[in-house]
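Standup notes, protein team

Yesterday: finished cleaning the Candidatus Caccoplasma intestinavium set.
Today: Right-handed parallel beta-helix repeat-containing protein structure.
Blockers: none.

Input for Right-handed parallel beta-helix repeat-containing protein:
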Amino acid sequence: MKTKLFLLATAFSVPVLTEAQVSIQDVGGWFESGYVTFTPIDEAASYSVYYKTAESEYQKIDDQLVRNYDSYGRADAMGLTAGTYSFKIVPVDSTGAERTDLSAETQSFTVKAHDRTGYAFFNGKTPGAYTADGKLKPNTVVLYLTEKNKNTLSMDVVMSSKGAKTTCTGLQEILNGYKKGYESRPLLIRIIGQITDPAVTDKGDIVIDMGNKTTCPGITIEGVGNDATIDGWGIRIKGASSVEISNIGIINCDSSEGDNIGLQQDNSYIWVHNCDFFYGHAGSDGDQAKGDGALDCKKSNYITFSYNHFWDSGKCNLLGLSGENDQMYITYHHNWYDHSDSRHPRIRSYSCHVYNNYMDGCAKYGVGATMGSSVFVENNYFRNTNKPIMISMQGTDIISGAGTFSGETGGMIKAYGNIFAEQSSSFRFVSYQDDNIEFDAYVAASRDEQVPATVKTKSGATSYNNFDTDASRIYTYTPDAAEDIPTILAGEFGAGRMQHGDLQWHFDNAVDDRDYDVNSALKAAVTGYKTSLVGLFTESGDEGSGGGDGGDEGGDENPPVIVPGQGYECHFTGSKPSNSFYTFTSANYSNSKGSATVNGTTYTECLKLESSTIIGFTTTEEMTLTLIFNEGSTPNIKIDGVKISATSGSNIITHTLPAGAHKLTKADQNFLFYINLGSTSGLNEIKADRSNGTIYDLLGRPVNEPQPGNIYIQNGRKFIKQ
C-alpha cells in the first residue's frame, strides 16, 4: 500500500533564495558627461552600463569606464551632447552573460555643454579630439591610461608618408610618434584613477610636442570621473596646435621644469579647463615652497584657461617670457583662485582677457600687467584680496617702495564690472579717474568704452590697444554678473574636476586669507593622497582601443581542431587578410600580440579590434562563425551590434548566424587571429534532440573522447571541453 504525503502551503513555508538586484546609489550629470554609482552584487563578475536619452535606444559605454571602488561601483558616460539622459546597469555573470533580470535603471539626469568661449576657439577652431557639440571627431583613437598599464599601453602610429605604422608603447612614446606629423587621427587619452610617474618621461613631464605640424586634428587628455589624478609628473606642451587638457588633478609635481602644466613655445589653440591644481614639490628658489608655476604660458597664441581650481598655489599663472607681443591672445575665465598667492595672472606683452574669475583670499596680489601688455579685467569677484589689480612700477605696486611683483615696465589695464568684497584695512585700488599717474587701472563706464590713447603707463608709456572693442580681435561672449561668480564656481557645474574632485580642502579664512606660507595640513593631505579605486571590473580591457596585452606566449597543450568551411577560412599575414570574402574597414595589424594555434598551424599576426574596425561579410545560409583570438585571453566582440563573449578561460568564440549581411565590431580591445564559417546543416537534428546526452562536434559527428580546448555540442548546447 502506498501512502501519499501532502504538504499544505498554508501550514508549511519553504524559504526561497532570491538574487539581489542592482541598487543605485547616486546619479548625476556634468559637462558633456554623466555618472552613476551602484552597490555591487554577488552574482556579478562585471557590469554592462548603458545610457540613453528619452528619444534614443540604450548605448553601451566602454567597459573601461566601469570601475570598482570596493563598496560601490561607478560608471561614467563621456562625450555626451547637452540633454537629459538615464543609465541602465546590467550585471554580467562569470560566463559573460548579461543578467537583465537583475538590472536597474536610473532616474534622468541633465548634461550641460562645456563653455567653449575664449581665444582657443577663435577663427572657428575647436581644440582637442571633440567637436564643438561634445562628440568625438571622426576616426578618433581612444586610449585608457591606468596605473596598471601606464608603461604597456600601446598604439600603432603612422610614422611615414607612405602610411607605415610603428607600434609605440607607453604614453610618451605614443606622443613622440605623433610628433612625426604623419598621423591624421585625433587622439584621446582618458586618465583613470591615480597615476604615478611613468617609466618614460621628458625630465619628469609627459610632453605633447607636435613638431609644429598640424596633420593631427587634435589631442585631448582628460580625466574619467571625479578622481583622475597625475601624481609626481607634469604636462608640458610645445610646438603643438589643437590640444585640450581637462578634468585632471595634478599633485606633487617634481619635474625639472616644475610646472604642473606648462605651455612653452610655438603653441596655438590650447584649452586647459576643469583641472585641480595642488602643491608641487618645493623648488630651489625662495618663492617655490609650493612648487613652481601651476599653469604657465609662454610664446603661445590663442589660448583659453577656464573653470580651473587653484588650491593655495604659490604662483598660479605666469603669462609671457620674452619675445611676445600684443598680437598674441589669451583668455582666463571662470577660474577659482582659492587662497592662492599671486599671478592671477601676471602678464607680459599679451592682449589678455580676464573675466568672471574668483580671487578668493589671495594673500599677495591679483592681476599684474607688465611690458606693453593690454589687459581687460572684467566682472571678476575679488574677496579679501588686498592688491587686486596692479600695473608694474606705479600705483599700488610701488606704494611701499620697491615693486610688489616686477621691476619691468608697465602694461595697461582696463577694468569694468569687478566686485571687491570683504576689503580689509590694507585694501588698495586706485583708478585712473582718481589719480591719472599713480593708478592701477582705467575704470571703464561700460564694457564697450575705449580707453583713450592719452592714457599711458608711468613706466614704458604703454597705452591700451582696445583689442576688446575691435570685432576682428574679440570673440562673442556673455559674461556672468560678478556677484554670481562665487556661487557659480562652487556649484555643480563649477570650477575644478567633476563633483569638485575627490581631494577637497576647506580653508580657514581668518588665517589663510593673509597667510601665504605652505598650509601644512593641506600639504600632508596632498602628499599622502591615495586613490580609493580598486580597479576595473573588466581588467582585460584596460589597455584601451589602441593597444592591448598579447597574453601568454606559447600554445595550448591541445590546440583546437577547426574544420574549415569551403572558401571561408581567413588569417592575417603581411598586414592583410588571407581571404577576400571578408571586407575590412580601418584594419590595423600587429605581430606582437601573442599567437593562436589552429589545426597545428601557429599564427602570430593578428587584426587589432579598434573602435573604428569593421569586418563585413554576407552568408547565403545559416552558418556557424568561429573566431579565434590570442591564447590566454578571454575575448569578446560585437556581432551585428550584440556583444558576444567567450566562455571563461577560452580564446574561442562561436556563434550561429542566419543568412544575410553581417558586421563584426569591437566590444573591448582584443586581437583576432583566425576567422572561419561552417555550415550548420549537420546540427539541426542535434538541436532538436536536447536530451540524449551524446556529444557532437560542430559538423554533427558523434565524439567519444572530447579533447580539451575544443568546441562541442551536448543536449543542444555548445560547450568548450576544459
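Follow-up from PR in the comments: The first helix runs from residue 171 to 179.
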